[in-house]
Amino acid sequence: MQFSVLAGFNATQQVALAANYPLIRVFTVGQKSKSYTPLEEFGTIEQNWTIASPQSIGGGQWTYFSAVCWFFGKDVFDKMQIPIGLLSDNWGGTLIQSWSSPDALAKCLPTPPRSSDIESANDPSVLWNAMISPVLNMRIRGALWYQGEQNWNQPGYYRCALPAMINDWRLKWRESSDEFAFLVAQLSAWYPAPDDWIPEIRLTQSNVSIALENVRFAMTSDLGDIKSPFGSVHPRNKETVGLRLSASALAMVYHRNVPYLGPTFQQWSIDRNSKKVIIAFERDSLGGGLEKRSFTCPSEIPSTACVGFELQFGLKMWNASEPIIVGDQIELPYQGDDVPLGVRYLWSAFPACTIYNRDGFPAPSFNTVAWTGPWG
């Protein structure tokens, strides 16, 4: 979320366009304060409330203004034509534990120990205390959450920590789920990634929208940017991320009849006679029908790392299968007499995203095999 407009694609043009949005106000919290006790006022402010302009949106790389936050807010304004306040409150490369209150952390024991470095922004609750607690004095409509790479090796913990944090934020603001929207951006394509647990983090980021009311997510793993100077997990196409989050907000918060879902897995079945697996999707996510797009694995990445659909035939034995669209379903052919034990999609750090609906939204990842990895 710290990734600024100036660091992304078409930066000069996007910054200039900010002059057309005087009814949007922006605020950026400073990153020089951490606290082991809750604060009522910000320790530092990078940019106080100001009118959106080329100067306030193009303040510098990694300072102000947040690209995802800006593209989100700009699109909401374009569709709704109402004044909007955008508060950018972030610190790149931090753990979810830093942004969680002690109450939220207590829901997901064990809590990691405090760092010996008093300056660590990754100590439990230090950013909640210094950068979120002061915001409790404000009335807000919702939050955008774009985080997860620092918890890559804690997929089990993250599965508990993300919904615990969301529920706690709502409680602290004394807002019900109907009044506090929470929008999550999934981790993007990432190579070289530190481990194969990245898909588990993404799955948690999508499943939380099922577990909790008024939570939505935006998929970003189809925006892989292997040439990004900031690393592939930080794609420069932040406009698409913001627009996908905005679509969710328009549908959920402002009750506009706009598409925001990609084809969402519903169930799978096996046709043994034809030797194929059949994937069905939630009807309200089809968006006018399925479409298959081409995908070329970047030359910098082994082709085996760019994975789409896979069928399981044994423990840790997964074989790729090329999808065929038949009506509103996907068929995955297989060979041999063995019957598939499971199916998964986009289960790699830099996946091959090929299935979309005609509204332009990608199908998110799924895995029919229960995860048995470490708690993390």
Descriptive key words:
alpha+beta; 376 residues; four-stranded antiparallel beta sheet; 8 helices; 16 strands
In short:
It contains eight helices and 16 strands. By secondary structure, it is an alpha+beta fold. Strand 10 and strand 11 form a beta hairpin.
Beta fraction of the residues? Answer: 15-25%
Note the gap between the termini.
24 Å
What string, H for helix and E for strand, traces the elements in order? HEEHHEHHEHEHEHEEEEEEEEEE
Strands of the widest sheet, in order across it, are 7-8-13-12
- Characterize the overall form: globular
Mean of pLDDT: 93
**How would you sum up the major sheet?**
4 strands, antiparallel
Helix-strand category: alpha+beta
The total strand number stands at: 16
Please tally the helical runs, counting DSSP H or I stretches of 4 or more residues: 8
The helicity comes to 10-25%
Radius of gyration: 21 Å
Give a verbal description of the structure.
The chain is an alpha+beta fold and 376 residues long. Helices cover 22% and strands 20% of the residues. The strands form five sheets. A four-stranded antiparallel sheet has the order 7-8-13-12, with no helix packed on it. A four-stranded antiparallel sheet has the order 11-10-14-16, with no helix packed on it. A hairpin with a 4-residue loop joins strand 7 and strand 8.
Structural topology:
Layout lengths: L10 H7 L6 E6 L15 E7 L2 H4 L9 H14 L3 E5 L13 H4 L20 H7 L9 E4 L9 H18 L8 E5 L12 H14 L3 E4 L19 H15 L12 E7 L4 E6 L8 E3 L16 E6 L2 E4 L3 E3 L2 E5 L8 E4 L9 E3 L8 E2 L9
Parallel strand pairs: 1-3, 4-5, 5-6
Antiparallel strand pairs: 1-2, 7-8, 8-13, 9-15, 10-11, 10-14, 12-13, 14-16
Helix pairs in contact: 3-8, 6-7
